[in-house]
């Protein structure tokens, strides 16, 4: 029989001295990079506005969660990834993450309208889009499930020794889900290469983060698991990109997981069927006026000599791309009924 230890070891001090990631710095973008951020975020904004219209016309069925207001998070973080190695997984608010990869808006919009040409062959819809080609593993409707699946993706990166890192996005509401903490524990224990990204948009459906979370500083949620966390201005694409670089450096050095709490805000309701009665219009307007991520980059561009007239053709071009995507999504054929029987059983990807 194993002998009991002679003495229970002394407890460590409440906050042990641990190595911490360095303070992230805002990304220093060239004019070209700033313009690219502007275009990428504007494309998401206009795409989502159009998706909202198509939903209103009855062309999109099921749930539809828009990403308007949160554009700087996906664009800033994903711009730092290595597209050949790194993987991404998120929840149901996923259109922006796909667009940030540069995936053709046509196949994303066609997925929303349930057409065979959609990126998940019209069978996933708004919440269940995948692109294994881009190492984008969904699109998940079960709140928090993507976090444990993300830990699995990170396990695969480590097991295969492929040098990849997983970016697993989840919301402030999902941060109270039990399986998130099981994933945290295993991820730190096995030093998995994963960045847990909490998109704190202040609300989980109609419940504000302060009403639902005893610790509302969500970047601290990894403390009991020895996972460091950083709080980031998620309305600032340069801060987002800078934080991604710090996090990637930590994870790629084999130090295990890290948490990024991205403070952001969604302008629209939780989904298209939410009348948003739990907050005032003034609250939303105040954020738009003060912290809009696209206006922010526009100001930075203006400071570099880019004028309203220079930006106009960009806006027109984006509107054209989005309108073409909408036309395509409206006119493309629906899947053949036989497709009900494909992609059902496990296959290798
Ligand atoms: C396990 C589970 N519980 C409840 C729901 C219903 N539900 C859908 S979204 C949501 C709120 C999640 O909020 P948050 O994580 O903050 O993400 P956000 O919608 O703000 O992006 C809830 C409770 C669900 N889909 N899955
Ligand atoms: Mg939320």
From TrEMBL:
Dehydrogenase E1 component domain residues: 40-337
Pfam families: E1_dh
Keyword entries, A-Z: Oxidoreductase, Pyruvate, Thiamine pyrophosphate
Region (Disordered) residue spans: 1-28
Reactions performed catalytically: N(6)-[(R)-lipoyl]-L-lysyl-[protein] + pyruvate + H(+) = N(6)-[(R)-S(8)-acetyldihydrolipoyl]-L-lysyl-[protein] + CO2
Compositionally skewed regions (Basic and acidic residues) per UniProt: 17-28
GO biological process: pyruvate decarboxylation to acetyl-CoA
GO molecular function: pyruvate dehydrogenase (acetyl-transferring) activity
Cofactor(s) this protein cannot do without: thiamine diphosphate
Top EC class for this record: oxidoreductase
Enzyme Commission no: 1.2.4.1
SUPFAM superfamilies according to UniProt: Thiamin diphosphate-binding fold (THDP-binding)
Compositional bias segments (type: Low complexity): 1-10
UniProt subunit comment: Heterodimer of an alpha and a beta chain.
Main function: The pyruvate dehydrogenase complex catalyzes the overall conversion of pyruvate to acetyl-CoA and CO(2). It contains multiple copies of three enzymatic components: pyruvate dehydrogenase (E1), dihydrolipoamide acetyltransferase (E2) and lipoamide dehydrogenase (E3).
Protein name in UniProt: Pyruvate dehydrogenase E1 component subunit alpha
């Amino acid at each position: 029989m194993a002998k009991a230890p002679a003495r229970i070891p002394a407890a460590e001090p409440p906050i042990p001295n641990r190595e911490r990631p360095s303070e992230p710095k805002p990304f220093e973008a060239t004019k070209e990079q700033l313009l690219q951020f502007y275009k990428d975020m504007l494309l998401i904004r206009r795409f989502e506005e159009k998706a909202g219209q198509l939903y209103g016309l009855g062309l999109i069925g099921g749930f539809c969660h828009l990403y308007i207001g949160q554009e700087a998070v996906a664009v800033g973080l994903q711009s730092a990834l290595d597209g050949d190695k790194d993987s991404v997984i998120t929840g149901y608010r996923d259109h922006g993450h796909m667009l940030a990869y540069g995936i053709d808006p046509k196949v994303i919009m066609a997925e929303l309208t349930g057409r065979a040409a959609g990126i998940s062959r019209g069978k996933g819809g708004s919440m269940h889009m995948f692109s294994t080609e881009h190492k984008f593993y969904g699109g998940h409707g079960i709140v928090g499930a993507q976090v444990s699946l993300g830990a699995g993706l990170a396990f695969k990166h480590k097991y295969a020794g492929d040098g990849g890192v997983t970016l697993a996005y989840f919301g402030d509401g999902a941060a109270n889900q039990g399986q998130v903490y099981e994933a945290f524990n295993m991820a730190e224990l096995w030093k998995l290469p994963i960045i847990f990204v909490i998109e704190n948009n202040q609300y989980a459906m109609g419940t504000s983060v302060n009403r639902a979370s005893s610790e509302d500083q969500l970047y601290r949620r990894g403390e009991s698991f020895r996972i460091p966390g950083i709080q980031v201005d998620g309305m600032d694409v340069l801060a987002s990109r800078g934080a991604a670089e710090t996090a990637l450096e930590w994870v790629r050095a084999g130090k295990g997981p890290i948490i990024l709490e991205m403070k952001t805000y969604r302008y629209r309701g939780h989904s298209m069927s939410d009348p948003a009665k739990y907050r005032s219009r003034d609250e939303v307007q105040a954020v738009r006026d003060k912290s809009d991520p696209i206006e922010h980059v526009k100001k930075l561009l203006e400071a570099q000599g880019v004028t309203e007239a220079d930006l106009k053709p960009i806006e027109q071009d984006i509107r054209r791309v989005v309108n073409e995507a909408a036309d395509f999504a409206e006119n493309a054929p629906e899947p053949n009924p036989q497709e009900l029987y494909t992609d059902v059983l496990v296959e290798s990807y």
